[in-house]
Each structure stands twice: as structure tokens, then as C-alpha cells.
């Protein structure tokens, strides 16, 4: 529709119809098979408004979307189509590894490709908008939503968010084709910094840190053209985001020029009351409107108060019109006025869902995001050759055969299609193995609500007999085997939204299983499933090899088999630091220099250190082993002075010293030695992935420019300050940059 026509449409709407556009309701209020009024009553939304609500969430599937849209349009006077939004976080029917895993790929292009593939499946299923990517930077593994983040690194997060937005929205602007889906960057802002890692908790930090570390990823999403932004649940400097005018207007719209739709997170306007910044729904609605929030997700605040606020002159009709305009414009961009069923197509669903090409991509992504944490004596890859004197293999552990090892947000995924490790092993010619689970993932002490889940029938648990049988079988198999592959991990319900933890060890009887298996088997390789960094000191000590696969998606089992047996090499490098102890959290590589930096050796307590634990992580950010090995030569700089507008090239030779070809993830770190404010000990500024044949040497090359050195100085201006910088080219973040140059 032409803009003029759209304007005319807006002008022809009644105030109630306009307000409707700003309201999002859960799908069950719009159920085409008969309106379920329960939720409607709860939200207090009247019949007329309900006929005019602008959007719904998590109603997907071509048939369902078409039905709901058809019914909706029948009852609507304005005939403005309904917008269908959904949480499509890391894949739709085909599920990819969780974002924290994808962050380990150091390959934004991979994320772009899989978001594009996801958009194809999702558009066929009738989705118009995805609530993704999540740009929240994470530093505290206690927070369950680490799994939805691409990690702790501001520069990488920005690259990933950009790539994801581009992937989802590819083809979106091609008129009427139903290609791509609109992307909603969330949770603006700094939701990942919840104090103590407890979900929905306070976020409070300096504006400098906010701008320097937390905002760049959202900004990258805006610059990549995301159509929507979601507010976060948390406060920022004492003001909940959803009522935070500074964030939404001054930063997002005025500074960054965002002119798309701002939506709240679920019920966040009403939460302004619980936060204690609004006394009732009406005040909450006013604060959110004033902040520039367009859509109220699933509360009655806008529905019940906006009309009155306008009548009383607290909110102007122009403000209302602006918000409605943004929603209408998005619908128009999606081509909904021409085709309200945009892309929703059952035949296309059949063609696209779990297509071979997408499955192959899922397998590639799982390999590129799995991190080899340990490989003592080169246990992996295992070799299996028919006719040779083979090793006897036992596959043991609760994740040996789990179809649901997908993480909490794979809500549209097809669990039946998931390849488990056991299934993948069975498909492998010449592989004999025995298997058993051994134990369950969780015990009640690991998850407070477990007993009530069991009581409600939402979860089953083994009886004593089964428990004893499984355990005994695991012990017998370990005794008989040469190599035990032990598939362990965090339970999926321990992560995701509301999944905060204070103990980060592998739950249940699994550590006991590991130590008992260790006593019996000669070699033990742990395949580790997780949605966050865990405390792995015991695992590191007991296992010969540890392959961290996170929640690896639909093709997880196949990818794991390929990696274990050397058909492919695990390529991931940690997107978050792994602590030695929960007490170290928050933990991140790019911490500020302190006045008392500790060398890790001196027996003197008056340093910035713990007296019972090193400062360093167990596994640093950027770390990951491979089946090849590599050596890094010294950094060579092609100059000692960087002029503004100019550049310096940093180079280092990287040699594959192993017997296999491989890919090295070469990382550039820079330290700004002195600044007007304290600077991090080092910052990642670039990555290249080098393919190296066995024995081959290649040069990693990075161009350093003044822009890469900018930060918010004492006067809050964003610029690079002259002075000394140090450069390192390393395989992970533990190195100390040494090569020096000066910025003029
Ligand atoms: C709450 C979550 O915080 C957010 O990430 C999600 O998109 C919405 N619910 C909608 O389901």
C-alpha cells in the first residue's frame, strides 16, 4: 500500500481502533475454534478492542495462522490484518545450536545463514516477526538466559546481532513475496546484567559501562535495520526499561535513529507497578507511552487506560498516532495489506520443514560451535576401522539418547526429528557399542520445583528398581569397555528464562557416575550438554577428553558422532569464560585493570585476588582445542605509530604443527595502556579463521585503525585517546599483549 493510503487509513480509525493496534494478546484469546475468554477477562479487554487488537504471539503453523487471520478479518471493521509474532530463537522446525554455542563459532556468516534458513521455515508457518536476536551481553553464568546470548564479548555480540538481523530479514523488503521475517532485537537494555545472575533482578551500572559494553549489540541490530526492539524487564539506573524515556527516546530513537516498533517484554508495563514506579495500570500506561513504547505485550494497561489518558490530555492523540503509524507501517512493509496470509502455506511447510539443506546446516553449526575442552593424550578422535583390533565402546549417560536436548527456547522444534547420539552411533557402519543411561539428570536438590513438576505429571522420575538397574548396568559396561563415552549435562529446565542457579556443577548423580565410571574404564570421554558455563574442575580432572556440545540442535547426535570419530573437527571457542568457582562470578576476560593487579604467584594477600581460588577462569574466553595443534609466532607490526585516518597491520605466523588439517580461530587482542578512564586489560578487536593443512604455516593479518580504539573517555566522548597500545595475536584470551604502537 502506498504511504498516502496508509495515512488515510490511520486517519479513518477511531481511537479504540487505534489503541487496538498497540495491543498484543496471547494466541488463545484469538483461537479460531471459539474465543477463549478467560485470558481476555483477566486482562480486562473488551469485545470491541479484542476485535481490533493489532498482534498476537506464538500462534504459528500455516493452517492455524490462516484460520485465525480469516476469523479475525471477518470480525474486523477496519480490515487491518493481524500481525503474528513468535519466539523463533534458534531455528523453527529445524533446531540449530543455542546462541551461546553459536557464539563459539566466531563466524557471524554462519548465524546469518541459519537465520535466513529459519526465516524460510517460519514464514511458511505464517510467522511475521521473530523476537530475536537477543543482544544481551552476559558475564554471569548463574543467569539461565546465558543460553540465548552469543556471549560476553561486545564486539562479537554486535557482529552476531547484525548478522542475525540480516539473515532473518533477507528479502523482507521485496514486495509481496512473503520472504524473510521481521526481526525484533531484545531485551533493550542490559537485561543480561541482572545482579547475582537472578532473572528479572536489578541492573545498575555506570552509563560508561552501559554504552561501552552493553549497548553496542542492540545498536548493531538497529544499524542492520531491525524492524522492532523489545524493552527489557530490568531497571537501568533505577528506571525500568519499559518506562525509561532516556533509553527509548534519547538513545534508541534520537541518537540511533530507530524508527521501527518498540514492544514491551511480556507484561512489562504492568510490572512498572510491581517495580514501584507506577501506582496503577493507568500510570504505568502513561509512563510507557511517554517512553515511546508502541505495543503492550499481554497486559490490559494500554487497553484499559489509553483512552482515558487521551481524554484527560495526559497523552496526546498525536502520540497515539505516531505509535499506531509505526505498527501500520510494519504491517505494510510485510505486505499484509496485499496478502494478510503472507507466506503461510501448508504445501511450503511440507517442502521446507527439516529440509536436507537445513539439517546439513544444523550439523555444520553444531560442529562449528562445539568446544573441545580437554583431550589428554589425544584420546579423540577415536578410530574405528573394520577388521582392525577395535576398541570396545560404551555409551553411557542421561544424554546418550535424549530427543529433548534442545534447550528451553526450541518451542517450535520437532523433537521427533532430533538425532540422538545413540541413533547416530547405530547408523555408523562398523561401530559396535553398548549403551545405557546410568542415571537421571536431576535430583530434587538441584531444582526446587522438581517435586511439584513430578506431582503435576509434567516430569517423570525413575523408581528405585530402575535406578539400581541402570547404575549396575553402567558399572558393568564401564568395566567391559576400553573407552566410555559419557554423555552428561545440565538439565534443560535448569536454564532459560527463570532458570537461575547458584551451584553450577553438573547436577544429579552425574558426577558420581563420572567418578565411578572413571574407576572402571581405561579411557573416558565426556560429551557435555549445557546452556551456560559450568564449574568443571572435577570433570577436567577425571575425564580424558571433554567435548562441550551445549544444546546442539536437531543434528546434534550426528555432529557429535562425526566429531568423536574424526570425520569432523570440533571448531568452537568459548563465547563465555568458564569459572573455577561460582564465587568468581561475574567473570569476563575484558575486566578493568585494578590498582593491585595480581600476578597469580606472590604470597601476599594485599592484591586484588581471592585467598582460596585463582583469579583466572578454568577455561578462558576464546579457548578451544582441536584435533590439530598450532603454534603462534610473534606479532609483527608494520609501524610503531598510528596516525588518525591511517592504519597499522599486525601479523603473526600460525603453523599447524599437528598431523591433521584444521581450522585455527586466530584472535586479535589490544590493550590500551593508559586512558583518561581505566581501560580493560585487553579487548578483542578481530578474528580470522585460518584453514591450515597439516604442517602448513599461514600469516594471520589484521588491520588496526583508530576507530577500533575508541571508547567513552572522561568527558563521555567516544574517541580514541593518543598514547601507547599493546597488541597480541592469540588462540584465546589468556595471552598478554606485548607488541607496541603509539596512537598520535
Ligand atoms: C518473555 C521473554 O523475556 C522474551 O524473551 C520473549 O520474547 C517474550 N516473553 C515473548 O514470549
From TrEMBL:
Family matches, as InterPro entries: Cellulose_Degrad_GH3, Fn3-like, GH, Glyco_hydro_3_AS, Glyco_hydro_3_C, Glyco_hydro_3_C_sf, Glyco_hydro_3_N, Glyco_hydro_3_N_sf
EC number: 3.2.1.21
Top-rank lineage group of the source organism: Bacteria
Family of this protein: Belongs to the glycosyl hydrolase 3 family.
Root EC class: hydrolase
Listed GO biological process terms: glucan catabolic process
Span of domain Fibronectin type III-like: 664-733
Protein name in the entry: beta-glucosidase
Record key words, sorted: Glycosidase, Hydrolase, Signal
Gene designation per UniProt: bglX
SMART domains hit by this protein: Fn3_like
Catalytic reaction equation(s): Hydrolysis of terminal, non-reducing beta-D-glucosyl residues with release of beta-D-glucose
Single GO MF annotation: beta-glucosidase activity
Amino acid at each position: 500500500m502506498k504511504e498516502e493510503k496508509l495515512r488515510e487509513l490511520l486517519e479513518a480509525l477511531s481511537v479504540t481502533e487505534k489503541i487496538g493496534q498497540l495491543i498484543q494478546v496471547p494466541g488463545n484469546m484469538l483461537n479460531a475454534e471459539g474465543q477463549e475468554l478467560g485470558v481476555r477477562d483477566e486482562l480486562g479487554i473488551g469485545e470491541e478492542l479484542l476485535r481490533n487488537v493489532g498482534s498476537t504471539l506464538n500462534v504459528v503453523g500455516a493452517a492455524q495462522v490462516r484460520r485465525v487471520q480469516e476469523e479475525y478479518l471477518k470480525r474486523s471493521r477496519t480490515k487491518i490484518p493481524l500481525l503474528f509474532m513468535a519466539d523463533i530463537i534458534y531455528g523453527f522446525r529445524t533446531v540449530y545450536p543455542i546462541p551461546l554455542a553459536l557464539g563459539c563459532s566466531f563466524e557471524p556468516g554462519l548465524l546469518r545463514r541459519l537465520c535466513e534458513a529459519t526465516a524460510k521455515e517460519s514464514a511458511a508457518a505464517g510467522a511475521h516477526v521473530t523476537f530475536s536476536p537477543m543482544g544481551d551481553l552476559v558475564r554471569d553464568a548463574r543467569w539461565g538466559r546465558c543460553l540465548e546470548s552469543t556471549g560476553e564479548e561486545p564486539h562479537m555480540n554486535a557482529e552476531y546481532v547484525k548478522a542475525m538481523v540480516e539473515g532473518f530479514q533477507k528479502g523482507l523488503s521485496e514486495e509481496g513475496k512473503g520472504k524473510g521475517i521481521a526481526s525484533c532485537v531484545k531485551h533493550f537494555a542490559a537485561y543480561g546484567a541482572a545482579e547475582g545472575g537472578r532473572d528479572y533482578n536489578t541492573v545498575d551500572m555506570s552509563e560508561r559501562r552501559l554504552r561501552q559494553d552493553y549497548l553496542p549489540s542492540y545498536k548493531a541490530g538497529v544499524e542492520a535495520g531491525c524492524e522492532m526492539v523489545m524493552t527489557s524487564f530490568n531497571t537501568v539506573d533505577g528506571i525500568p526499561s519499559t518506562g525509561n524515556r532516556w533509553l527509548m527516546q534519547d538513545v534508541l530513537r534520537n541518537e540511533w535513529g530507530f524508527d521501527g516498533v518498540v514492544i514491551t517484554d511480556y507484561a512489562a508495563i504492568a510490572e512498572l507497578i510491581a517495580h514501584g514506579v507506577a501506582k496503577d495500570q493507568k500510570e504505568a500506561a502513561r509512563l510507557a507511552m511517554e517512553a515511546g513504547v508502541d505495543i503492550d505485550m499481554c497486559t490490559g494497561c494500554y487497553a484499559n487506560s489509553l483512552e482515558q489518558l487521551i481524554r484527560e490530555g495526559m497523552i496526546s492523540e498525536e502520540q497515539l498516532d505516531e505509535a499506531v503509524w509505526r505498527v501500520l507501517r510494519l504491517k505494510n512493509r510485510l505486505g499484509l495489506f496485499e496478502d494478510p496470509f503472507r507466506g503461510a502455506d501448508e504445501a511450503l511447510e511440507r517442502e521446507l520443514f527439516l529440509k536436507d539443506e537445513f539439517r546439513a546446516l544444523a550439523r555444520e553449526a553444531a560442529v562449528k560451535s562445539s568446544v573441545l575442552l580437554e583431550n589428554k593424550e589425544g584420546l579423540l578422535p577415536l578410530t574405528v576401522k573394520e577388521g582392525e583390533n577395535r576398541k570396545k565402546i560404551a555409551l553411557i549417560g542421561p544424554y546418550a539418547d535424549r530427543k529433548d536436548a534442545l534447550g528451553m527456547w526450541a518451542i517450535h522444534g520437532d523433537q521427533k526429528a532430533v538425532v540422538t547420539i545413540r541413533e547416530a552411533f547405530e547408523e555408523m557402519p562398523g561401530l559396535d557399542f553398548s549403551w545405557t543411561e546410568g542415571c537421571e539428570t536431576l535430583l530434587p536438590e538441584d531444582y526446587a520445583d522438581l517435586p511439584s513438576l513430578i506431582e503435576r505429571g509434567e516430569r517423570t522420575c525413575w523408581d528405585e528398581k530402575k535406578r539400581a538397574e541402570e547404575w549396575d548396568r553402567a558399572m558393568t559396561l564401564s568395566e567391559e569397555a576400553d573407552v566410555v563415552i559419557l554423555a552428561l549435562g545440565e538439565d534443560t529446565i535448569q536454564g532459560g528464562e527463570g532458570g537461575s542457579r547458584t551451584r553450577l556443577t553438573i547436577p544429579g548423580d552425574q558426577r558420581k557416575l563420572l567418578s565411578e565410571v572413571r574407576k572402571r574404564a581405561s579411557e573416558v570421554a565426556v560429551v557435555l550438554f549445557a546452556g551456560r558455563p559450568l564449574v568443571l574442575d572435577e570433570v577436567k580432572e577425571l575425564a580424558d577428553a571433554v567435548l562441550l556440545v551445549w544444546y546442539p540442535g536437531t543434528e546434534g547426535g550426528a555432529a557429535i558422532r562425526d566429531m568423536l570419530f574424526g570425520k569432523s573437527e570440533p571448531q568452537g571457542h568459548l563465547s563465555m569464560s568458564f569459572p573455577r568457582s561460582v564465587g568468581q562470578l561475574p567473570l569476563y576476560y575484558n575486566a578493568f585493570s585494578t590498582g593491585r593487579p595480581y600476578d597469580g604467584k606472590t604470597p601476599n594477600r594485599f592484591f586484588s585476588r581471592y585467598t582460596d581460588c585463582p583469579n583466572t577462569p578454568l577455561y578462558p574466553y576464546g579457548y578451544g582445542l582441536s584435533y590439530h595443534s598450532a603454534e603462534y609466532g610473534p606479532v609483527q607490526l608494520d609501524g610503531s605509530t598510528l596516525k588518525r585516518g591511517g592504519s597499522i597491520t599486525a601479523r603473526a605466523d600460525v603453523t599447524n604443527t599437528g598431523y591433521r588439517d584444521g581450522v585455527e580461530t586466530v584472535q586479535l587482542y589490544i590493550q590500551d595502556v593508559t586512558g583518561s578512564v581505566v581501560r580493560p586489560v585487553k579487548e578483542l578487536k578481530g578474528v580470522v579463521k585460518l584453514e591450515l593443512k597439516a604442517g602448513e604455516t599461514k600469516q594471520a593479518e589484521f588491520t588496526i585503525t583508530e576507530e577500533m580504539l575508541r571508547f567513552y573517555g572522561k568527558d563521555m566522548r567516544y574517541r580514541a585517546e593518543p598514547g601507547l597500545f599493546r597488541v597480541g595475536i592469540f588462540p584465546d584470551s589468556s595471552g598478554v599483549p606485548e607488541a607496541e604502537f603509539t596512537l598520535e
